[in-house]
Amino acid sequence: MKKNILIIACIIMLFSIVFFLGNWHYFSDKNPQIVEDGAVTIEAEQLQKNNMIKLDGEWSFYPNVLIPPQVSLDSYEDKRIAIPVPAKWHKYVQPNEEEQGLTIGTYHLKVKVPVEGQYGLYIQTIRQSNRVFMNGIEVGGKGSPGETLSEYQAENNDKYTVFTQSRNNELDIVIHVTGFHYPQAGIIYPIEFGTMQATQQHYRIKVLTDVLVSVGYVIFGVIYITSYIQNRRRKEELFFGLFAILLGLYMSFINQKVFFMIVPITHALGQLRLQLGSVPLVIMCLTLFIYYMYPQLAKKRTLYPLLILMGITFFMYAIYNPFTHNLRATSEEEVTFRKLVYIALNAPVVAYNVWVLIRVLLKRLEGARYILIVLIAICSYSVLLAINFITDIPFDYSEILLFLLMLFGFVLLLNYRANAAFIKIQALSEELLTHNQMKDEFLLKTSHELRTPLNGIVNLSKSLMEGAQGPLKRTQQEQVILIHNITQRLGHLVEDLLFSSTHMTGEIRVSPRAVPITVINEVMTEIQNIMPKNSHVRLITEVDKELPNMLTDELRFKQVLYNLLHNAIQHTKIGEIIVTAHAQQSQMIIQVSDTGTGIPIQDIEHIFTAFYQVKKQGQKEGLGLGLSIAKNIVEKLDGAIYVTSLLGEGTTFTFTMPLATEALVNNEPIFTTMGTQAATEVLKLDLPLFYKGNDKKILVVDDDHVNIKVLADTLALKGYTVIAVDNGFDAVAYLKTNEVDCLLIDLMMNGMSGYELCKQVRKQHDMLELPIIVLTAIMKHSDLVLTLQVGANDYLQKPVSMDELLIRIESLLAVRQSSIDAIEVEMNYLYAQVTPHFVYNTLNTIIGLSYTNMNDTREALYCLATYFRAKLNVHYRNSLVSIEEEIELVKAYLSIEKMRFVDRLTVKYDIDESIQLMIPALSIQPLVENAVVHGISKKLEGGTIEISVQREGQFVRIKIYDNGVGIPDEKLQQLLNGEGSRIGFVNPLKKFQLMKNASLRLYSEAGKGTTILILLPEGDGA
Question: Partner of 185 for a Cys bridge, out of 179, 560, 867, 1021, CB 3.0 to 4.6 A?
């Protein structure tokens, strides 16, 4: 606090010193009075070194008259009096009441000079209008002095110079002055005399000083406004810039009035409007600057009234004053009152700024000491300005001191903030580097930690799918497959994170070798195959197959190309994506261009940064690692990558790869894997190819005969039966008439792509019934995995490792066998539930018949024997029986029930005995039993049951109808959802759900009966 008080005291002292030194003659009784009785003699020594001489003393004065220069002053000798200069003349003149109080007078001075020559006067305001004559010649003036009000025109504190040639070593100076109700009128400032050269030099120095101050403020303001325009964040820079510019303009309106030297506004009222109107604007900008500099100390509810007050003040004094109607004052009292009103309007805002400044100092906010220097300087200057406004005492050189203090204060403030920002940024940089390193380590550790449990989940789910712990129910197996697939996708995300972490730590590994340029076509073709058919994006490849080989890592190269293509597809809704390649010197230059949305300029330099994503209408896709990974792979392979983009027109990514030398191509080793490159010799196989092996059949689909040969030989050596075709259409045709255990599909095929083949196969066979492995050239990617999983169980990337392929096939065959075992177990479980239920009801019926009719009892026992024979055959035939055997069981059961109900039960059959169909055992009989027990038996009069088996198109329709009591709607819905307690209905429903393409429908109405419709594809089994 003591330092702040010291700063305030020093600044006030500086302004006081400058003020008193510049105006000492106003406060000193020892000013040299060289003029006596209207005459002065100038010595040669006084004119040396271009000194200016103040013509202070007693001038001759002729009150209440304007003496023309051509008239001799001797005729007015009786009116001549002595008047001190500089001084106010109100004691020496009498207002002319006929002219509303106009006052006039003539000043006269004779100056004797040592030598003939050109001499000049520097005049600092003669109120309120004046005209200067030297040696009888008019040499200058401001305003228009006159004896009548109509001739009078006021000046506005104008400073100027006049020059003339001496005559007989003498200068005769006559000055006409007119005043109009102004308290400080006459020659109130010293008139300075000197040679023409000295006068011009003196005036130029004053003008140059004003120019430097004004231009300095304006430049200072422009710098701050430019700084604000660049970042648009710190509004205090904007308002300080406006404050400095307006203050610079105001400085050009006063003193030497350099602004009016450029803009010729000569009318005093126009100049006065600019002077008075600019002050409230300066104060307004200063107030806003302080508000935005220290918003915690200023309140809007206080700020807004102050700004409104300044707006009103500006309007009144710069545009139109509704109280004075822009008319001049008619009395000295009115002039003084207007000045006080003007000060009163501006004072509250200045006081508010001072109050905020005091709070800044008390709270010791950031940069308060430097702001203190500036604001105390402004306040001190404002006080001097007010003194000048009221008393007309000049404050020369104070504006220079204000400018220097403001410059000094803000330079220190900027330097302080720059140092503080630098220290803060340095600390943040060190902290960010530490956090970045911690982040890399965290990603690396987290990826490793996640990989272990994910691998555990994958292996455990795979073990469950393969039936290692026994067969699962089908629904359980489907859930395990879902868990396995989701875990695999998570595993790929973890691999992306792990890869990102390793490239950040420089641990990425590559294996460069000679790779043909055709790898680009392979990746493009595969991506075209997996793109939606209704896509409005065209993929175009412009790559010459004769281009030389590249020295690169094939897998990593594919990853880079896929990442760039994937990025282009994401940002191109309609248009085309073009991939080009050409060799230049020792580099292969590959370009991926799209006609998409483009990249904003501010994002281009960041798009290769890990986890950075361009904002896209609130949508975020992926992790933002694709381009970062691509860049690091390219650089690791001794290439370079860069991007050009126009917003709304498209983007082009360009990357380079070194070319492989001829020696490297010739010495390239032969890999024991199935690759994607074309064979040097064309191989033509006789298809379909068939290798007889064990009972596990594998269908291979690939349009490359070399690949077919490699795959078929490998699989045949493992003992599998292999069937191979070279297109998707032949594969679909083969599957319609034959069963296979596994399908190998190349994703990139002519005609029907592997992707389309997957979808066709899945229309007839689910993922458990027929596993599919897709062979793809594209790098592993979570989005691609998700797309392929629509139809494929697994995929392998080319070049395919045969050992890995065989392991995948064995695993999927184990999963398929486990699914078959699960269906068998679930069927047997359902039979175990149904059998006791049916036997219990049948035995009760036979016991009842034994008391009344032995013949019917024998018939019932025969039917029961038929049932037991069917039951025993179930286990022998793997839970499937022919529909003929199931109908025989139904007839046996209904014969028993007919014996119980006699005339109350009517049975009708409509059976097409030519139908050959395998269905789950005990699937129709329980439904018939349910109709009899829960439908017909509950009606006193009994009812009718109808059994129908007929063809309906490609399906067999089984209908069971009864006209019993029916089923309420709520109970009906429970049965259809598998939630009912009726074993005789729920178990058959579950059995038919296990059959492929089977459907069961139930229609019932309370009191009217029930209809069950079963549709089964003819010729299919479970």
Answer: 179
Q: 693 to each of 84, 690, 713, 717, how far by Cα in Å?
A: 135, 10, 12, 9
How far, in Å, CA of 533 to CA of 759, rounded? 13
Q: Are 862 and 869 in contact (CB under 8 A)?
A: no
Contact status, residue 677 vs residue 748, Cβ threshold 8 Å:
no
Helices (runs of H) and strands (runs of E) counted in the chain: 27, 33
In the chain, the amino acid numbered 36 is E
CA-based end-to-end distance of the chain = 95
Tell whether the model's pLDDT for residue 840 goes beyond 60. Answer: yes
Task: Determine the 3-state secondary structure of 739 from DSSP.
Answer: coil
Q: What is the DSSP code string of 610-672?
A: TT----BTTB--S-S-HHHHHHHHHHHTT--EEEEEETTTEEEEEEEEEBPPHHHHHTPPPPS
- Could you give phi then psi for residue 816, rounded to 5 degrees? -65, -45
Compute the distance between CA of residue 37 and CA of residue 358 in angstroms, rounded to an integer: 55
Give the Å distances, CA to CA, from 138 to 166, 545, 782. 14, 97, 96
Residue listed under structure tokens 């690692």 = 625
Residues 42 and 60: their CA atoms lie apart, in Å, by 18
- 750-786 pLDDT, tens digit per residue, is 788 887 888 888 888 887 788 898 887 665 554 455 4
C-alpha 735, offset from chain centre: 51
pTM for the model: 0.51
3-state secondary structure of 576: strand
Which residues, 6+ apart, have CB-to-CB distance to 945 below 8 Å? Answer: 894, 905, 906, 907, 908, 928, 931, 932, 935, 936, 960, 961, 962
| Cα–Cα dist 76/251, whole Å | 43
Query: Which of 793, 685, 701 is CA-nearest to residue 754?
Result: 701
Sign of CA dihedral 186, 189, 195, 197: negative
Stretch (H or E) spanning 787? helix 782-788
- Contact (Cβ atoms closer than 8 angstroms) between residue 827 and residue 879: yes
Q: Give the pLDDT confidence score for residue 7 in this predicted structure.
A: 78
Long-range CB pairs of 356-360 (<8 Å, 24+ gap) are 356/290, 356/294, 356/297, 356/298, 357/290, 359/294, 359/297, 360/294, 360/297
Residue 549 CB: number of other CB atoms within 10 A? 21
The angle subtended at Cα 65 by Cα 60 and Cα 68, nearest 5°, is 85
Q: What is the pLDDT of residues 104-157, one digit of tens each?
A: 999 999 999 999 999 999 998 898 899 999 999 999 999 899 999 888 988 888
Q: Are 217 and 251 in contact (CB under 8 A)?
A: yes
Q: CA 64 to CA 572: how far, in whole Å?
A: 91
**Enclosing H/E stretch for 311:** helix 300-314
- Bridge partners (DSSP) listed for residue 776: 797
- Determine the Cα–Cα distance for residues 317 and 321; give it in Å rounded to an integer: 6
Instruction: State how far the Cα of 573 lies from the Cα of 562, in Å rounded to an integer.
Output: 18
pLDDT at 500: 62
The SS3 of residue 140 is strand
Q: How far is CA 1014 from CA 827, 936, 952, in A?
A: 18, 21, 11
- A 10 A CB-CB count for 362 gives 12
Q: According to DSSP H, which parts of 902-948 are helical? A: 925-931
Across 732-853, the runs of DSSP E, i.e. the strands, are 742-746, 772-776, 794-797
3-state SS class at 148: coil
How far apart are alpha carbons 484 and 662 in whole angstroms?
Answer: 46
DSSP state at residue 846: H
Indicate left, alpha or beta for 100 from its phi (over 0: left) and psi (-120 to 50: alpha): left
Nearest Cα neighbor of 651 from 580, 590, 575, 598 is: 598
